[in-house]
Design brief:
With about 375 residues, the chain is an alpha/beta fold. The protein has 17 helices and eight strands.
């Protein structure tokens, strides 16, 4: 990656990160569609094969590309060992899993309530909706799962492929959003009857809110309001635990054992998102290890510029009899122009964060769909 004015960022030493026993978590983050899942899998594979680490990669990618590339028929909420990797000499292991948002939520409920209360929660329609589709639940449950994996102490390295959200910051914001939800005025009002052993939710709202309750009932419906009341009352004893675990995981993400890798493509939106995330990590004092710029285009003859290539193509075309060479020169010109555009886009990040190390990965001729492809990406990340 060569920014404008020939000011290059410091090189990112991926192998140093993967081999460091003090690094226990690598978080791959960035905009959607930039290759986070492939990058996370390639890093995890390299950590196991080359550095002998017992590694688990956690993906939140519903497209199941990770399972396919690792030769697994399926991935679920339980880590599965990947067979056939070349780690005999290093002694490493590779395990993979895909976040099941609802199952993770169910496991949290089972761990922190008695069986009767858990059955009550599971039967509540509002819980069914929230655990499957509620905005922010996926990001928060990714944090829960990361906290669980870290607490178990079974892994030398946990590699996290963050959710394909509208904004990569949703992953970091999940604990704060949950805390705001738990501390919100409306929720405290909903919890009041359950905590005081008072009247039913419906009568409480009617008595306490007057005309407002009629509006709420019209918008939500009396049954939904009742379901919400039951859900809130049933989970009341767990709310403190939710917040405590979220804050604990957040502190882990701030610790030196964590390394954030921003993943981007040389496109304006992706680089802008990466820069925004880098600024946020700096504000939150979280350890940003570097930038991975995926799908970079490099001409085979970098010293031959687009203008020179087009001029040579025109001269040969006038002479005739060199059609193949003319097409090659014109194709090279297009690629050279694209490479220059990508360098300018990438330079926007480097100009804003000149001390952040970076590594670029050349665009592959085909999608990565197997372990050999992941090895190729891992080698490119490590500048082999």
């Amino acid at each position: 990656m060569v920014p404008s004015d020939n000011v290059a960022p410091p090189p990112l030493d991926v192998d140093r990160i993967l081999a460091d026993p003090g690094v226990r978590i690598v978080v791959c983050c960035g905009a959607g569609g930039v290759g986070k899942t492939t990058t996370a899998a390639a890093l995890a594979l390299r950590a196991a094969e080359e550095h002998g680490r017992r590694t688990v990669v956690l993906t939140i990618d519903p497209a199941r590309r990770l399972a396919q590339s690792l030769g697994l028929t399926e991935l679920d909420n339980t880590p599965r060992q990947v067979k056939g990797i070349d780690a005999e000499g290093s002694g490493g292991e590779l395990h993979a899993m895909m976040l099941d948002m609802k199952r993770t939520f169910d496991d949290v409920v089972l761990q922190h309530t008695d069986p009767a209360k858990a059955a009550e929660i599971f039967a509540n329609p509002f819980y069914a909706a929230m655990s499957s589709t509620f905005a922010g639940t996926q990001e928060y449950m990714a944090m829960e799962k990361l906290g669980q994996l870290h607490a178990r102490g079974e892994w030398d390295l946990i590699v996290v492929d963050t959710p394909p959200s509208r904004s990569a910051l949703d992953f970091l914001d999940a604990p704060a959003r949950l805390s705001r939800f738990l501390d919100g005025r409306m929720l405290r009002l909903l919890l009041a009857p359950a905590r005081t052993g008072g009247r039913s939710m419906f009568s409480f709202v009617t008595a306490g809110f007057g005309m407002f309750s009629k509006v709420v009932q019209k918008v939500l419906g009396a049954q939904l309001l009742t379901d919400l009341s039951g859900f809130v009352a049933a989970l009341d004893s767990m709310f403190g635990g939710f917040r405590q675990r979220a804050e604990q995981t957040y502190r882990i993400l701030q610790a030196r054992e964590t390394a954030f890798l921003l993943v981007a493509a040389p496109e304006s939106d992706a680089v802008r998102e990466a820069a925004y995330f880098a600024g946020r990590l700096r504000e939150e004092k979280m350890p940003l290890a570097g930038l991975v710029l995926n799908r970079v285009h490099r001409p085979a003859v970098p010293d031959l510029g687009a203008a020179e290539s087009l001029a040579a193509a025109e001269r040969l075309a006038e002479r005739g009899g060199h059609e193949g060479t003319v097409e090659v020169l014109r194709a090279h010109a297009v690629l050279a122009q694209q490479a220059v555009r990508e360098q300018r886009v990438a330079a926007r990040f480097t100009e804003a964060f000149p001390t952040v190390p970076a590594v670029s990965v050349t665009a592959q001729p085909a999608d990565v769909h197997d372990v050999d492809g992941l090895r190729t990406i891992g080698a490119a990340l490590s500048r082999e």
